[in-house]
Design a protein that fits this description.
Length: about 90
Amino acid sequence: MADDAAFASHPDVMTATAQGRLKTIIERIERLEEDKAAIAGDIKEVMAEAKGEGFDTKILRKVVRLRKQDKAKRQEEEAILDLYLSAIGEI
């Protein structure tokens, strides 16, 4: 009986509540991973459609990434890029 009490108080043993909470969290993550895979598949289909219509998918991805950025930050980065390219004689 004393061994049971020592075992239950050991830091490597979870309470039933903690075990249940852990299981819930893991199941939520698994569902979200499934959703993420489905969304990635949907994006792949849209990109294939765009490519079929003659659009450059690499540029489309870049446009999407740029649209996520704050406009002022994007303009600042573009100005620095232009400065650097000019400094090395590329533009």
